[in-house]
Amino acid sequence: MKELGKGYCGECDSKSKVLIIENGGIWSKCKRCGFMEWEWQIGDGVEYLEYLADRYDVPLKEILKALKEE
Prior knowledge:
Elements: E1 2-9, E2 14-22, E3 25-30, E4 36-41, H1 46-55, H2 60-69
Antiparallel strand pairs: 1-2, 2-3, 3-4
């Protein structure tokens, strides 16, 4: 499991969400309130990875690298 970036959580109104890369997929989880949701899995569009990179302020290359390491 690898954690990347930092994003806004709409549940608790904080910038405490991270991307969790695990088992070939990506989840987002708030470190403050614990809210978690599925974001991406192998087979989904690469365009959404670009969106996640922007939203969580992490380079797309880092996300792709983490997915390959899983």
